[in-house]
Amino acid sequence: MVDPTVSGRATVAGSADTVDVLAASVARVRRAAGLTLSAVAARAGVSPAYVSQMESGAANPTVRTLCQIADALGVTAAELLGGARPGTAAPGFPPRYAPAPLLAGVDGHHGIWDLTAPGASRVGARLLHADLGDHDRPTAHPGEEFVLVLAGSCRVTVAGTGRLLRTNDSCHLAATDEHHFTDPSDDLLMLVVLTEE
Asked: 66 and 85 in contact (C-beta within 8 Å)?
């Protein structure tokens, strides 16, 4: 079905949304990169007026021109059309905007808070307060692990080698290597991020 009323040009129903997405993407990416219309135009081999028309939704670029503009902006044509960057997966879950729920809190322990959004499956994040959870004894699991000591201190041992982590120290490790944490200070506050792969 053709709708001749959109911006004074014949448009296949639904493609007006694509034009709007493209226009907004070109403008957003260009500004984020700190590039002028002229700079993008020079890189892409088009006129500054044409780039401006793309950003306003007035231009209908060919695939070749779209690819030239994308290259000039350092992104892919698919990204300009609303797709994800290659190698990234759509999150598949809503972001978490809420106070972190207490995952564990028992007598003698300060607590562990789960920061992971409901439904997330590839990354988990926890905030530990003077509590090492199940990592207080040697463990190994798939993926990677990143820890950042926000306050206090503790000792991390990875594959038999130990090191004291103090405030602002971090450790990124292959979680398949046997690792554990010991000697948490009473004021330990540690962010732990784990991946499933």
From this structure: no
Q: Which two tokens stand for residue 12?
A: 């296949």
**This prediction's pTM:** 0.49
Residue with tokens 């330990």: 188
Beta-bridge mates of residue 104? 112
CA distances from 26 to 20, 44, 58 (A): 10, 13, 13
3-state DSSP helix/strand/coil % of the chain, to nearest 5: 30, 30, 45
Distances (CA, A) of 185 to 109, 125, 129, 153, 191: 12, 21, 9, 5, 15
Question: pLDDT digits over 24-61, tens only?
Answer: 889 888 888 888 999 999 999 999 999 999 999 898 88
Q: How many CB atoms lie within 10 A of CB 181?
A: 23
pLDDT score of 106 more than 50: no
